[in-house]
Design a protein that fits this description.
alpha/beta, 5-stranded parallel β-sheet, 3-stranded antiparallel β-sheet, 9 helices, 39% helix, globular
Length: 280
Amino acid sequence: MLDTWHLELAAWCGLAVGEQLSEGKHHHTMKITSVECAWVSLPLPRPRGLTGGAITSSSDAVCRIRTADGISGIGESRGSDLGTLCEIVTDAIMPLLVGECVADIEETWQRLRQATLGPDVLRPAKWTRRAVLGAIGMVDQALWDIYAKSRNVPMAVAIGGECRAVSAYLSDVFYEPDIPFEQLLDEAEANMERGGYSALKVRIGCGVADSVDRVSSVRERFGDSVALMVDANQAWELTTAVRAAQSLDGFGLSWLEEPIKPHGGAYRPHDGHDANGDTG
C-alpha cells in the first residue's frame, strides 16, 4: 500500500544524500529498528527506446533502514517487478534484520542470500533469483550507507577508496523509431555541448548490422575526440555478443555494456579485443 512515506520518497532521498552525523558512533552498536520499502515512478518527457522496448518512466524500488542511533540508510533497485522487490524486502528480509546490529555487512549479505536462495528454501515463483538478489542488493546499499554516515565519511572512503573527480558522460541516442536518426544525433550533439561532455554512450542491440551502422554514424558525426561507449541492454546470447564485439572492434569503444542476456552463456574475458566488456 502506498502511504505518506511513499509520497515523500523523493524528499527524503534528497535529505539522505546530505545527511551528516557526528563522529564517534560505531557500527557495532547500531541496532536496526525498522526496514521500509516502497517504489517510485517518474514519467519521462518522451519514451526512450531500448532493445527490450520503450521506457516511459524512471522507476525504482527504494529501501530505508533506520537504527536506534538515529541513522538511516538508503538503497535502491530496479530490473525486476518493483512490487515484488518490496515484497521480498518486507516479507523475507525485514524479519531477519530488525533487532540485529549493523556489524559485518559482507556476512549479512551471505546470510540473507542463504536465507532466501539456499537449496532448501521454498519461495513464490515470482521471487526469481534476479528479484531476490535485487532486493538483497538495495538492503546491502542501505547498510553501507549507515556505515559511512556513522563515520561521517563519503561512501568511497567507507569502503576503502578515496574521493576524487570522475568524468561524466552523456547517455543518449536511444531507439526512437518515430524520430529520424539524424535528429537524434543533432540532439545528442546539442546536449554534449550544453553539458560540456566529452564522452557519449549510445544504445545498440537490435541486430549486429544495425548496431554497427549506429556506431559508425555516431563516430562519423563526433569524430575521435569524443570517448564513445555502447550499451546493448542484455540483448544477445554469447555467440552473438562475441560477433558484435568483433564487428565493433574498429570503432575505438571505451566499453561494450551489458551485451549478454542474463545467464546467456559463459563469459570469456577479453577474448582478444580491446573494448572493455560488461557481461550484464
